[in-house]
Amino acid sequence: MTLVPDWFEDNFVNVEDVLIDLFTVLLSEVDVGCWYADDWLDEAEPDPQLLFFRLPGARVNYDSNSDVCNVQIIAVSGSRDTSWRLMSFVRAVLLPMQGFRAKFEDYTAQIWCSDDVAGPEMLTPGQQIDTRVVSAVLSVRVGLASRKRYMGEVTDALAAALVPPDVPVDP
User: Fold this and answer.
1) Domain count of the chain?
2) CATH number of the domain to which 41 belongs
3) Is position 74 within any domain?
4) Which of 121, 169, 154, 140 is nearest to 55 (CA)?
5) What is the CB-side half-sphere exposure of residue 162 using CA atoms within 13 A?
6) Per-residue pLDDT tens for 103-128?
7) How do beta strands 66-76 and 31-33 pair?
8) Residue 9 falls inside a structural domain
9) Is 4 contained in some domain?
């Protein structure tokens, strides 16, 4: 099924996919993803995991052809110390990135990371979902996949919809 017109090319790179693909390569013994089953913390020794979620509150900057995203990162493992080590690794890799080009199997992404927005969070055990969880929010900017703006296509589609081709237009 075609949901969008044939002339449309995806402008945006999914920042969650970029980070998942990057850290899957860098951390082969860690499950890297976005969502897990509801019972993922029920195990006494859960497999080490990194989760990436794009949060509301970011913006697109068409002048710099980039998508500025707030990304929540959650590290969890069998111990709080190991989770902190995972988070430290993620921050040490991402925070210095300033225009880094990451080439993956199906796409290339350009990544900038400006700073910590929130975290890593040091909450008391009563405030946390689980003491083995360490989370942070980073501001990550990714380049747009396409620089197309589509105004010509939108104008043409509106003109075709509003004025049937067989009806003359008065000057």
Assistant:
1) 1
2) 3.30.2000
3) yes
4) 140
5) 7
6) 888 888 889 887 877 766 655 556 55
7) unpaired
8) no
9) no
